[in-house]
Write a structure and sequence with these properties.
Layout: H1 33-50, H2 57-74, H3 82-99, H4 108-123, H5 129-151, E1 168-172, H6 174-180, E2 185-190, H7 196-207, E3 214-218, H8 225-232, E4 236-239, H9 246-261, E5 266-267, H10 286-289, H11 291-302, E6 309-318, H12 324-332, H13 350-362, E7 367-371, E8 381-382, E9 388-389, E10 395-396, H14 398-401, E11 403-404, E12 407-408, H15 412-433, E13 435-436, H16 438-453, H17 459-463, E14 471-473, H18 474-493, E15 498-499, H19 501-505, H20 508-519, E16 529-530, E17 534-536, H21 540-547
Parallel strand pairs: 1-7, 2-5, 2-6, 3-4, 3-5, 13-15
Antiparallel strand pairs: 6-7, 8-9, 9-10, 11-12, 14-17, 16-17
Helix pairs in contact: 1-4, 1-9, 2-3, 4-9, 5-13, 9-11, 12-21, 16-18, 16-20, 16-21
Amino acid sequence: MKAAEPSSKSPTESKAPADLAVVPALTSPLSDFARIRPRILDDVVTRTISEVPAAKVETELTAALYLERQRLNRDRGNLFTKKRLKHDRALWNGIQHSLLEPAALVDRSPLLRDVAARYAEEIGGRFDPKVYKLATGVLPYGFNWLLNAASVKNILPWKMTEDVRSRLRIGGDVAHLKKLAEKGTILLVPTHQSNIDSILIGYVIYLMGLPPFAYGAGLNLFSNPLLSFFMSNLGAYTVDRQKTNRIYRSLLKNYSTRILKEGVHSIFFPAGGRVRSGAIESKLKLGLLGTALDAQLENMKEGNPNSKIFVVPMVTSYHFVLEASTLIDDYLAEAGKHRFIISDDESSQFSKVLNFFWQLFKAESGMTVRVGKPLDIFGNFVDEEGNSIGPNGTTIDPKRWLSSYGELAPSPQRDREYTRILGERIVERYHAENTVLTSHLAAFAFFESLRERYPEYDLYRFLRMSLSQRTLPWDDCLKEAEVLHKRILECADKGMFYLSPEIRLLDTKGWLKDGIRNLGLFHGNAVLKRGEGTLYSEDMNLLYYYRNRLAGYGLSLLADPRRRVPGAQDEKGFLV
């Protein structure tokens, strides 16, 4: 059953940014993390080892050795990762040598502890209050300098007149989130479009007056020495998606559970990586998400105060995405099924990252962040006091939902079902909290206008149309956009999503021009471009990427309007 939703203001209401002048105090356990880190890592290693029966230690080590050999053979490394790879090879060479010895001569248990300890040290985050103070001072100053230099050509520090906060639209249940942060532990679960998300979300958390959060970051991001320095000292723990053995996966889950249990507010990207299609997430990875339930259950069993974990969705929206070209190409090539990470995209090139922010600020474009309605670990909404509101609108007791025969106890099958439901609720909230920008709507309107002209084409033939085929008269596009505009307003009034102020306040021609302008700010080939009385696309793949932001709502002109299943494809391969 769907959880009862607390009353709220109109879903189309444009909300003013939260009070962004608050400077957060270091009240998080992260401020004392240097002291508690050794104990946390030791607990995680001990727990991981205890989960492997003595009779299966050799089997698990052998399986891990095989998978790690494959990984190390694939990974050639670079200047900054060769040392780490050298240590990994030395470890697994030693494990292989020891496994070749008879079990009577070489005890397998210390080998398992060596592997777990190595993984724990790699995963385990750190936090330095001095680095945090530096980052929260330098980052806003750098953004402000870039904003002034780009938008008003004023690079002298004492003449800066604009603040980067003017480019951020922060809406949603910010006050609710801040109250819950004092009553329990926050697990923030944002959508994930770009590697820029981590910078943006960290800054938004600071602006909202919240203490620092721990967060998982791909190990590949630590290859950059500058990024590695800051992430390694700001609570980031590493997630290596190329390590697939059960020892590593168990240790990662146990680390996540342990820091949540410690009361460390955390950030997960539950999709497991950036969404390649451009659409809102429709499928989540539930492994780490389930650690929220594990942590709350353990806290309740031990009688720890403020034991509740609150799961808070967050949706970020950009007019243009730094890595869009690489991501959509990977999606269309179906390489995403085989590649865990993309290490050679635009976010790895400093010049392109700098250009991304330069164009963002120069054109007075903005970024939108929306804090969703907080959930409990079962997917129910929670009120401002942290009480869970059940499907029938009444307050429920989480202890009853986590008890078996009257006692608090884990139940793998039950807990997996709870986590599955939580994942579904998060996906629902992502779609409901999504803010439609003019760029998304312009791309969708033009793309669907083309589809009406070529209904027999499948996705791949459609994306490879000639320039003449993907050129439409401006007046025809405007008429189609007017029809879509009415539908979008109706859907927003029903609470299906939120709208940027431009879509609500401007006429169709106004928001369409604004969307075309924003889509043309960053990419080399224009996503949409006006000609002499015409409109056309120079890059159909990018057009599809930005169009997909409105997939999952049944808005496609050629789709059954009743089909609003996130991630669903029609018979021709289009996301609907």
